[in-house]
Amino acid sequence: MELLHSLAEGLSSQDAITLVLLALIDSTSMGTLVLPLVLLLFTSSGGRAGARSVAVRVAGYLVAIGFFYWLLGLVLLSGVDLALQPLGAFFGSRPGAVLLLAAGIGLTVLSWWMDPKEVRKRGGDPDAATERWITRAERAVRSWRGLVALAVAAGVAEVATMLPYLAAIGGLAQSGLPYRASGLALAVYCVVMILPALLLAVARFALGGGIDRPVARIRDWAVCTTPTTLAWVIGIVGVVIIVRVAPTVLGG
Question: Membrane spanning segments where (predicted)?
Answer without folding.
Answer: 20-42, 54-77, 97-114, 146-166, 186-207, 228-246
